[in-house]
Design goal:
This protein has seven helices and no strands. It has helices at 3-28, 32-49, 59-82, 104-115, 118-128, 133-140, 144-162. 69% of the residues lie in helices and 0% in strands. The chain is mainly α.
């Protein structure tokens, strides 16, 4: 693959899957600066992966897998450093979501998703994007039945939290 072809593929993928990347970044990073860092890390990984893409899965599946794995790895690494630094949230974000008005329910859902462990967070995002249990199992390397169990637990957990008196979202 030539560098020109790699550039074109990257540009095409970024145009098509930007919203998917924003969702993953928002679910794994809260401060704006962290979101910028994570997005940059994901984009680097996607760029480097292009020559190894063999079309054995759809580009969506491929990008999702790269983004989720990168987010999980980044999240683990960041957790180790969080105590050692203060969050500086004064700079403007390079991560600008497409003009979407803030919805209190969506904000609440992202907050709840962010509190899940990395695997459950990934399952939740994949589920919300309509992937089948089989596709999720393939991307995450766990069984379809385990996916089903985890989805049911996540749903119950979210329903319980939405009914709590201090809940201001849904």
């Amino acid at each position: 693959m030539t560098e020109r072809e790699q550039n074109q593929t990257f540009t095409d993928w970024l145009g098509q899957y930007k919203a998917l990347l924003f969702k993953i970044v928002r679910a794994y990073a809260v401060p704006v600066m962290d979101q910028d860092d994570l997005l940059q890390e994901i984009l680097i990984q996607v760029w480097h992966s292009i020559p190894t893409f063999r079309q054995q899965s759809s580009p969506t599946t491929w990008i999702y897998r790269i983004a989720l794995n990168t987010a999980i790895k980044w999240s683990t690494k960041e957790r180790k450093h969080t105590d050692a630094r203060e969050t500086i949230d004064t700079e403007q974000s390079i991560l600008v979501e497409p003009s979407v008005q803030s919805d209190e329910r969506v904000d609440w859902l992202y907050e709840e998703i962010h509190q899940l462990n990395e695997v459950d967070r990934s399952i939740c995002l994949l589920f919300l994007d309509g992937f089948s249990y089989k596709e999720m199992a393939m991307m995450l390397g766990i069984s379809e039945s385990n996916i089903g169990v985890k989805i049911n637990r996540i749903k119950k957990q979210l329903i319980t939290r939405s009914k709590q008196p201090d809940h201001h979202g849904i």
